[in-house]
DNA sequence: GTGAAAGCGCTAACAA
DNA sequence: TTGTTAGCGCTTTCAC
């Protein structure tokens, strides 16, 4: 393995000069540059990134916190984040952190010690006291102090869902999902948007929510179907839950969308082939993934960054009229 | 940030001694050890892993090659791999490599230069000439020379599927899936097992296969339904495809499983809530993920390792009689 | 058992 | 514009 020393020697220049051309920094004459480049080529020299990371205190690696990669929406998002990071020359370490605050803390500590360059976090753990806005951290769907975040237009999505239900003739609508006592997340705005729109439109609505995490989603759904027989339109917090609701309702011979309209949130591709095709509010996953990376890199460069909220879109499927 | 120097000074010992107790290597008297440990504690010293990686040429990081994390089976597998790696003190870099050989090569080069400790690969790229069995690499479902691999019992699974179809009264069965001209993968054994079992049982079978990757899965499935109306039982290469087949068949009012039995392969959890519940051959994902890590670490320790084939299980759903 | 010292490959400051 | 040098924090000889 050739080192920078070998390159310098072969090119007949000093160590510093070699380093300068390799990093394209500082003044180097065209002529010298050429000599060095030749040497690099001849030797097949590749910089030792570990050594570099050691001296620059930056290893070009970002940690992605995810409750669990084993969840369709997160894995789609992770896909685009990795793709964009790779394009920008960063590696991505995955950290499945669901309910494991310590695991996240480990990486936050690594960040403090410059052992990861930055963090992109989809985190439902209580980490607000461990991080602050001067660190290169970007969050998804969550507000912690001044830390920049990216989210879809949850509020608008909530309104949109109600609008659709109303326009397709639903009279008794409900919001189904979760809430959290401990952390604030953008997701709650789906409810808020739904609620506000219902009020504006003078429509009666029901909130069917349980504290996150729901222990038994199936039971949660069955209970709903048992107790809210008059409801003819539901906006469900996410596609996975919406999809299970569709299944359970069909088991009960409730015809969808005639008797019950269902709208999800996320627009997960993985489920796109299923019948009935779910009507849903689609988050622009790819866009979100790439802006997360953009924001983080700006942060890394010391630029000022502000939260980004991306527009959503209603995807008509077969679960609404 | 306290360094090992600070620790040594505070403990009143030499640098080397401090290092020895930190790494629990070499001879250190109990007494000295205690002093050093105290100093570490008082200073809140944490070893600088980057520096360590630099000198030891090992950064305790393994790269996971995945065609795409955005695929249910892979993301489940990735989940367990990450979990196990974390337990063993390794970080996991994710590399979505579908069709991007260069991306894999990048990490293979990093491996050669000791910038990643090892590689776990689910790769469909032609990388056989770039790697060899002396490298710390473990593959999933693929044989490349002597490189160790982990897979489920694809052959047994294929036999099992046929057995089930036969026992539930199917007379005209088919295998549906893909093949590759360029790479050999364990997946083909699903077909082989199915075929062998059909022959043993004296059952007529049809192979409905197309070269991987299938451009348009939906068309592929429609064509099947158009042309093979006499078939009453299909074993499909993976759950995703099986699931879409179920949907399309139902659209055509083909009753499942009465007119057509369908068995998938994988046992993906993400789809577990869907109706009709898919009958499938379940791979022990968790076990596979964890053994991949085990094998890799053994390899890293210079131990001899051999391929591991894990048993599969038939999961009866509602798409078989 | 222990301390001193070399050196991993690189960047950056400094002097020339 | 260039070469020299210090030093990043750690592990690992090698004497003692």
From TrEMBL, chains A, B:
Which Gene3D superfamilies does the UniProt entry name for this protein?
3.40.50.2300, lambda repressor-like DNA-binding domains
Q: Which InterPro entries match?
A: HTH_LacI, LacI/GalR-like_sensor, Lambda_DNA-bd_dom_sf, Peripla_BP_I
What residues form the membrane-spanning segments? none
**A Pfam family matched by this chain, by name?**
Peripla_BP_3
Q: Does the keyword DNA-binding apply?
A: yes
Task: Tell me which UniProt keywords the record has, alphabetically.
Answer: DNA-binding, Repressor, Transcription, Transcription regulation
Q: How is this protein named in the record?
A: LacI family transcriptional regulator
Return the PANTHER family for the record.
LACI-RELATED TRANSCRIPTIONAL REPRESSOR (PTHR30146), RIBOSE OPERON REPRESSOR (PTHR30146:SF95)
* Organism, as annotated: Metabacillus sediminilitoris
Q: Specify the superkingdom.
A: Bacteria
Keyword Secreted present in the record's keywords: the answer is no
Check the record and name the SUPFAM superfamilies matching this protein: lambda repressor-like DNA-binding domains, Periplasmic binding protein-like I
GO molecular-function terms, A-Z? DNA-binding transcription factor activity; transcription cis-regulatory region binding
């Amino acid at each position: 393995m050739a080192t920078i020393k070998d390159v310098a020697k072969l090119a007949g220049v000093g160590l510093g000069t070699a380093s300068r051309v390799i990093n394209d920094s500082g003044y180097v004459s065209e002529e010298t540059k050429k000599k060095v480049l030749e040497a690099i080529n001849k030797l097949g020299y590749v910089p030792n990134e570990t050594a570099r990371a050691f001296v620059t205190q930056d290893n070009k690696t970002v940690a992605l916190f995810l409750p669990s990669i084993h969840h369709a929406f997160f894995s789609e998002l992770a896909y685009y984040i990795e793709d964009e990071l790779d394009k920008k020359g960063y590696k991505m370490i995955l950290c499945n952190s669901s309910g494991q605050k310590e695991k996240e803390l480990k990486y936050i500590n690594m960040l403090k010690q410059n052992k990861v360059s930055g963090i992109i976090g989809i985190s439902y753990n209580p980490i607000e006291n461990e991080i602050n806005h001067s660190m290169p951290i970007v969050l998804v769907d969550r507000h912690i102090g001044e830390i920049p975040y990216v989210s879809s237009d949850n509020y608008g999505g909530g309104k949109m869902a109600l609008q659709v239900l109303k326009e397709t003739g639903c009279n008794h609508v409900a919001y189904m999902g979760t809430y959290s006592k401990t952390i604030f997340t953008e997701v709650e705005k789906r409810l808020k948007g739904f609620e506000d729109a219902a009020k504006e439109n003078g429509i009666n609505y029901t909130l069917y929510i349980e504290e996150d995490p729901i222990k038994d989603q199936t039971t949660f759904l069955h209970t709903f179907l048992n107790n809210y027989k008059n409801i003819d339109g539901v906006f469900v917090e996410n596609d996975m839950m919406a999809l299970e609701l569709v299944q359970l309702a069909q088991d009960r011979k409730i015809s969808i969308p005639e008797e019950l309209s269902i709208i999800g949130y996320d627009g997960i591709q993985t489920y796109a082939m299923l019948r009935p095709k779910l009507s849903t509010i689609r988050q622009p996953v790819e866009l979100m993934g790439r802006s997360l990376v953009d924001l983080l890199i700006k942060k890394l460069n010391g630029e000022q960054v502000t939260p980004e909220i991306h527009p959503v879109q209603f995807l008509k499927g077969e679960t609404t009229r």
